[in-house]
Amino acid sequence: MRRAAAVLFALVASTALAQDAGKEIRRYREMVAEGSPAELFELGGEALWKRPQGPKNVSLEKCDLGQGPGVVKGAYARLPRYFGDADRVMDLETRLVYCMQTLQGRSSEEATAHVFGTADEPSEMESLSAYIAGQSHGVKMQPGISHPKEKAAFELGRALYFHRTGPWDFSCASCHGQEGKRIRLQELPALSERKYAGPVAASWPAYRISTSQFITLQWRMNDCYRQMRMPEPTFGSDATVALILFIAATGAGETYAGPGNKR
Length: 263
Prior knowledge:
mainly alpha, Cytochrome Bc1 Complex, Chain D, domain 2, 2 domains, single chain, two-stranded antiparallel sheet, 7 strands, 7% strand
């Protein structure tokens, strides 16, 4: 009886400790939101957006992110979406690669050679993502969900989210499938539910404090597959774009508050 009581006490204590820690983490994020290091990436991204590059020696300033050539204000909040010129659903990063190829004349290999940077050497994609996402701050998120290919991508994303596979028989829902789950102090929101998907979608891409890195959503998806012991996805694959659309569309209507800060 005493042993059972001790175990119960330990469980209650650890839950309370985790809840207190969660509150402190959220409070810390609020504190660092003012003057976030993500702002440095936004500045670097703006310079890259305007810098002539590639065989054609032109900038990305005429890249159409869905709101018209060169329009970045509010563009991120409406991604992923279908683009007729590419005839596929694209998130921000796949659209940027497309513009690097079509506007700047860069090959696919060159455009995707260095898409995941480090704390010492951030990638072009991370800085550009920070700049463009920052231009949607305060805009309600409304990704594309009306075109037939957008609907198909959403359904693919939903199926992938719950599909168990790999050597550990994991799915996205294995970690992000139940309310209140966590790994140590890290909360694991159930991203198939509106109340959790909204705040998460509205804070990515984000600056990770523990590694001093700016992290994009393609990077996050890639790392989730790694953690499930799955093969690394092709950058900008239909699968990763579909998962991003599923989460963004599930959380649609949330006001974009990023780029955010993560642990």
